[in-house]
Specification:
Elements: E1 12-23, E2 26-38, E3 43-47, H1 54-61, E4 69-74, E5 77-78, E6 80-81, E7 84-85, H2 87-91, E8 93-96, H3 108-118, H4 123-137, H5 152-164, E9 170-174, H6 182-199, E10 202-206, H7 210-216, E11 219-223, E12 230-235, H8 250-266
Parallel strand pairs: 3-10, 3-11, 8-9, 9-10
Antiparallel strand pairs: 1-2, 1-4, 4-5, 6-7, 11-12
Helix pairs in contact: 3-4, 3-5, 4-5, 7-8
């Protein structure tokens, strides 16, 4: 599944992208104009306070929300043109949400292979792809189980496998581990790092966890409180693969502390 991309290919370009919602006739700004370019195979984390527009930005990149202004391109193709989404740009994307959203009446294998079934791929090819992805995400042997038989972490592994089934160039993840306990979350972070390297996907992750952001990211994009804008972009210098022990290092904790202080300085204090 590893892939080599030519320089400049399969990147995300965000130029002046903003979002305003209509609230009973009043315009409510969710995101101020955002400018960001994401390189091939890069792991970028969107971080910021609740309500700052992280998920809105991710959903705009994924074609689920239409920008009010600006331009979004995927691998050089405009995601939106004449009010419609570009099918070729959309085909480069895979998405994982906080809820695994697996169909309870389907097996793990059939859940993973569903996007391929919808694209008309033959059963043998679907099964082979699902089996390979189960090995990649660490749930081999559970292909014929129903989602209710899996732990929360295993269901999220299956959701990641489903997103990867169509061989996307870009993987978008909206707090996929937010509901997991701390130990399971640490394990999933280790495995996501391995999946990112093995798949070769450019990855964009939304999280509220500063530690998770620093552990996973090549760059962390910190958004300001609503209406969100880019406050800072932090490069994370640690080599891969990263181990959980890295989190105890002085260099790691220095980045966590700097981000925490920046978040605190930009977030209004609650009213007394």
């Amino acid at each position: 599944m590893d892939r080599e991309e030519p320089a400049g290919a399969w990147q995300i370009e965000i130029a002046g992208v903003a979002k305003t919602y209509d609230d009973d006739g009043a315009a409510v700004a969710a995101l101020q104009p955002i400018d960001l370019a994401i390189r091939p195979r890069e792991f970028v984390v969107l971080l910021g306070p609740s309500g700052c527009g992280k998920t809105t930005l991710l959903r705009m990149i994924g074609g689920l929300v239409r920008p009010s202004a600006g331009r979004l391109s995927i691998a050089g193709r405009d995601l939106w043109a004449d009010g419609r989404r570009d099918k070729t740009a959309l085909a480069a994307l895979g998405m994982v949400f906080q809820d695994a959203n697996l169909f309870p009446w389907l097996s793990v294998e059939d859940n993973i292979a569903l996007p391929l079934r919808l694209r008309g791929q033959p059963k043998a090819a679907r099964r082979a792809r699902a089996a390979a992805l189960c090995r990649l995400v660490g749930i081999a042997g559970f292909e014929h189980r129903r989602p209710r038989a899996l732990s929360g972490g295993m269901r999220q592994r299956a959701a990641i496998a489903r997103a990867l089934s169509v061989d996307p160039r870009i993987l978008l993840m909206d707090e996929p581990f937010g509901a997991l306990d701390a130990m399971t979350r640490d394990q999933m972070n280790l495995e996501l790092q391995q999946i990112h390297q093995a798949s070769g996907c450019t990855t964009v992750l939304v999280t509220h966890s500063i530690t998770e952001a620093v552990f996973l990211a090549d760059r962390i994009v910190l958004l300001s409180p609503r209406p969100g804008r880019i406050d800072t972009v932090t490069d994370v210098p640690f080599a891969r693969p990263r181990t959980i022990e890295l989190q105890a290092s002085a260099d790691f904790q220095a980045i966590v502390l700097a981000l925490r202080q920046r978040l605190k300085s930009t977030t209004p204090a609650p009213m007394s």
